[in-house]
Amino acid sequence: MRLTLPSGTPEGIPLTVMPVREDAVIGTMSLATLVRLVPSPRQEEDPRALKTASGHDRRRAELRATVQRTLKSQKGRNIPDYAEYIAAGILGKHGSAWSTPPITLWHAGEIAAMSDELLPGPGLRTLTVAPDAMVIAIDGETQTTAWHDIYQDPESFGLTYAELGRRVRIPFELYLGISPADARQIFYDRNVKGVDVAKNLAMSMDQRDLAAALANVRSAETGEGGDGEQPTAAVPADGDRYAVLADLPDTAVVAVADAAVGDESALCGYGWAAEDGTTGYGDSLASSSGEAEVIGVCVAALSLLEQYEDAPVVLLCDSIEAVDAVNTALRSADPATVHRTLLFPESRQLMDRLLRHRHRVQVRWLKGHIGHDLNETADAFARLALRRATGRIPASAARKEEARILRSLGAGGSPLAAAA
How far, CA to CA in Å, does 407 sit from each of 300, 377, 400? Predict the structure, then answer.
């Protein structure tokens, strides 16, 4: 006997929604539905959890990292207070004077199904999200994480699962099938762009609106704006300015690598510049500035190793953490020694490739941002790569900036050999 498989009714999580444009819907959902749709961001950033996670969950974590800030920022420190604020609101301690903004979600890929209108006129439909769909919070992730904390242990907040089910409906907007670049742009528009509020209006606002209060605290503490990158402290130009290169053979190929990370996501930009005028830049995923610097070193070294088949390659880097991590791996010939610094598979694969050439590669430290032409060029390319990756500079402007950086390098010469 052959069984006929069921068809017709799609499996998944049903949501009652109202379309607001061709690729976006709005609605409300229960807390139980939210935690099923969107995994805890804490878990998606936990290296130990990722080691034992399925391939699907790791890919999801990587995708989230392209459009979101990490919880290591001020955002993560806001979560406990936000959870307490939400719980107090549910319990009626704020009366009617409390609110949480809608959570903005992104459904990557095709949806399982969308029904016809449930009733003529209002436009309400049933959208079905497949069990393996990747739904990511591109705005409101602090709130999402706070909801996860409450749902994990409601009793610690003075609540019960029955109360959460009865009292909570979470408003959301859901973008369907847009590209990662578009999702990242929405994040950028919501979190970096903005309109200045008149001072007298801001002072009159009820500061019990914790969402606004937390945003104000974070803005004051991080000074986020412009490119969103952290300022680099000036390094005195006294003492030994550069790594010692006098012991290198004349055939050695020397380059400087640098990286740039932003607070808005796990994307990084990297850049490098060599004495022979060779340069390069790109973007990748990085869980920390240390991982970003390691990526920059690996990419630069692998590029030069391919170009110069027999010559030794020396990479200079202004991150002591990255230099130590790469050198430890090169000495031990064991990638596991550096994997604790590298969260994402792409960066681990780069390190694994570099180990095959460990006898031809050296990595040394130099002081950064003290006027060294190659270091300044690498830094400029890294920052340009980050701006391109996060959609903060149009392609035409990026090409002009690239040309300007190259002209600057050509005009400045290369003082590296003289400094040695």
Answer: 20, 10, 11
Q: Which of 200, 222, 244 is the last residue of a domain?
A: 222
- At 191, the amino acid letter reads N
Where is average pLDDT lowest: 37-41, 346-350, 397-401? 346-350
DSSP 3-state of 381: helix
Q: Which of 305, 256, 226, 207 is nearest to 409 (CA)?
A: 256
Q: How far apart are CA 206 and CA 203, in angstroms?
A: 8
Which residues have C-beta within 8 Å of that of residue 382, sequence separation ≥ 6? Answer: 258, 259, 260, 268, 269, 270, 271, 281, 296
Residue 331 and residue 347 in contact, taking contact as beta carbons nearer than 8 Å: no
CA 311 to chain centre: 36
Which tens digit of pLDDT belongs to each residue from 4-43?
Answer: 665 566 789 999 999 999 999 999 999 999 999 999 988 8
Helices 345-355 and 320-332: angle between axes, nearest 10 degrees: 50
Q: Tell me if 315 sits within 8 A of 297, measured CB to CB.
A: yes
Domain match, 179 and 308 both: no
End-to-end, the C-alpha distance of the chain in Å comes to 82
Give the residue numbers spanning the domain of 299.
Answer: 253-419
Q: What are phi and psi of 279, to 5 degrees?
A: -135, 165
The answer to whether residue 112 is domain-embedded is yes
φ and ψ at 57, to 5 degrees? -70, -35
Residues 6 or more apart whose CB falls under 8 angstroms from that of 373 comprise 273, 409, 412, 413, 414, 415, 416
Q: Of 19-28, 94-103, 180-189, give the lowest mean pLDDT range.
A: 180-189
Q: Which helix (H) or strand (E) holds 277?
A: none
Rounded Cα distance between 266 and 286, Å, is: 5
Residue 324 located in a structural domain: yes
Q: Specify if 141 maps to a domain.
A: yes
Q: What angle do CA 163, 44, 51 make, to 5 degrees?
A: 130
Q: Over the stretch 273-289, which tens digit does the pLDDT of each residue have?
A: 998 889 999 988 776 77
| SS3 category, 33 | helix
Strands 13-21, 361-365: pairing is: unpaired
Does residue 226 contact residue 390 with C-beta atoms inside 8 Å? no
